[in-house]
Amino acid sequence: MRHRRTNEIQTPPTSDSLLEPHSQRNESHSRSTFSYFSLPLALLLSLTALSFLQFGDFDYTLLFGAGNIAGRNTDKNIVGLKKIKNKNGKRKNRVEVKARDESKLNNLSAEVQGGIGEAEVENVTQEGSEGNDDIHIVFSTDCSAFQHWQSYLLFYSAYRIKQPGKITRIASGCSDDGKKIEESWHNEHIKKMTKDYNIHFTPHFSTVKDEAGNAKGDYKFFNKPMGLLHWLEHGEGMGVDVNTGKMKNENTVVALLDPDMILLKHITRDFSNEKMVIRPSHDPERFRVEHGVPFAQMYGLGAQWRRFDLDTITSDASSHAKNVGHNEAMKHYPVGPPYLATVRDMYNIAKKWVEFVPKVHAEYPHLLAEMYAFCIAAAHLNLPHELVEHTMVSNVDIGGEGWPFVDKLSQRTRKKNVCETMTNGSIDYLHAPSSSIPLPTVIHFCQRYILGEWFFGKRKVPKNFFTCEHPLLEVPPLDLDNYDYKVPTGKHGIDLKEDVSRKRAVRDGFVICTVTRVMNEASLFFKSGCKKDGAMEVNVEKSLNMHRDLF
Questions:
Q1: Pairing relation of β-strands 52-55 and 58-64?
Q2: Beta strand 449-451 pairing with 454-456
Q3: Amino acid 285: pLDDT
Q4: pLDDT tens digits for 350-409?
Q5: What is the mean pLDDT of the chain?
């Protein structure tokens, strides 16, 4: 049953449960310690939600040993229950770990939301690769705090689903001090996931110059093509082999993503499984990324790039881009991230992309200039892309994305709601390559998502979200996608509710619930490394409601 507009204003929940969804927080909680400890101990420990308990006027913190706390060897892990008087009457959630064996303390990361253990890190890129381990994901950022937290989230999202291959963040324009800070932070917090997660630093590329070469502005998206080329020429394992004149590892598939993406399924070079793939209506011609056969997500760019001054941009009167007709342009070139191509092809594209993008921006000094420049570079090189639609969801109101998978998710999982699937249940099986239930490959959270009085927007995420002291996001109700209204951000009250269609509710709910889960898991994983004097003290409150608290 859908939640209708009513005249009741619900009181915000006050529960401090770690994993408990909003819709379950009105249930009464016993104040008796006996009612909790009468549960089977193994079950108690398997629920990370109960790492913090509150009875009456006291906070109780379970003290775990350094071993596993997810239901394994539980008799060796409980040290005791510590009672902490609330200060000034305020509730304070704490997780405190007393390590019997300091060398095993980092294994706590394995237990946060069912994460992968330290001992398994070396196998992350091997398990479930199905021959797709020769994939190198890259994404371009600057060195701002805004893209710092996005980078951590992207790395973690790949780690949690055991994405095969390597991942490199291309960070452009860092100061000398900023580079040192980012490199140290990366080594401490990202390399903890796997040694195959790297960071590559480049010069500042985003300056817009006039014909005389003088700076006249800034376009931050220059970093993407120019940073990519810099990495291809100077990155670890990259560059031209001086003996052969070919690119090193030229058969590796490069997948170029944006930093505001989280992975739900493996990035792969194989698109032959019709059940797991959505292609445009035309008959697909090729099914695997190979030399001369790049793939990419279809975007709503149309064939507009054909209207640009191609003679000036390409400096080639016989450029193949000029020979591409409207139908071919619509069939093979309205592309965006994820882009997938072999190293050989991506290097050739990157060189022309870097050459063309300043000229495209000069003619079209607006957002998407770098995307149009990519289309022109690919067409100039006669590298038509195979289009896929399922590798991304972003805009809930348009077609050409992987939304059909989301629209049918509840039916396929036999759950009432998408939020019930993506928030509350064990969803590891959905991400596995062997899963028969399709999902979009990535969520590109570049839009604003609102349903009821729940909201997610990347520009409102606190830049210090991944720190020891910052609270987690409040968990939406499991039936959020049943809501048929939204309240505009910054406004509260029944008279301001706006109707929402069923389709939009499912899609907004999917993004809000999924991103909330992944961000909270990533935060808990980060917090597993917060040490202070041999113990860990972190804020694990699920208390931040972006709709209520950030406007």
A1: antiparallel
A2: antiparallel
A3: 76
A4: 999 999 999 999 999 999 999 999 999 999 999 999 999 999 999 999 999 999 999 999
A5: 80
CA nearest neighbour of 402 among 338, 306, 462: 338
What are the tokens at 196?
């195959």
DSSP 421: I
The answer to whether the bond into 477 is cis (omega within 30° of 0) is no
CA dist 355 and 333 (Å) reads 18
Triad 198, 202, 205: Cα angle to 5° = 140
Q: How far is CA 363 from the centre of its chain?
A: 33
Q: Residue 118: pLDDT above 90?
A: no
pLDDT at 536: 63
Q: Is 328 exposed, middle or buried (0-12, 13-18, 19+ CB in 10 A)?
A: middle
Distance of CA 219 to the CA centre of its chain: 24
Distance CA 543, CA 507 (A): 24
Question: Residue 528 and residue 129: Cα distance in Å, rounded?
Answer: 27
215-258: pLDDT as tens digits: 899 999 999 999 999 999 999 999 999 999 899 999 999 999 99
- Name every residue whose Cβ is closer than 8 Å to that of residue 174 and which is 6 or more positions away in sequence: 143, 182, 201
State both tokens at 66. Answer: 């350094």
The DSSP letter of residue 424 is I
List beta partners, residue 138. 168, 256
Closest residue by Cα to residue 332 from 319, 320, 318, 344 = 320
83-99 exposure pattern, b = at least 16 Cβ within 10 A, e = fewer:
eeeeeeeeebbbbbbeb
State which amino acid sits at residue 543: S
Q: What percent of the chain has pLDDT over 90?
A: 66
Using only the alpha carbons of the chain, give its radius of gyration: 25
Helix (H) or strand (E) holding 63: strand 58-64
Does residue 49 register a pLDDT over 60?
Answer: no
The token pair at 533 is 């004097």
Q: What is the DSSP string of 394-436?
A: --TT-SSSSHHHHHTHHHHHT-S-HHIIIIIS--HHHHSTT-S
Cα end-to-end distance, the chain, whole Å: 30
Residue 88 in 3-state DSSP? helix
> What is the dihedral angle through the alpha carbons of 81, 82, 87, 92, rounded to the nearest 10 degrees?
-50
- The pLDDT value given to residue 188: 94
Residue 25 and residue 59 in contact, taking contact as beta carbons nearer than 8 Å: no
Whole-prediction pTM = 0.79
Q: What is the DSSP letter of 363?
A: H
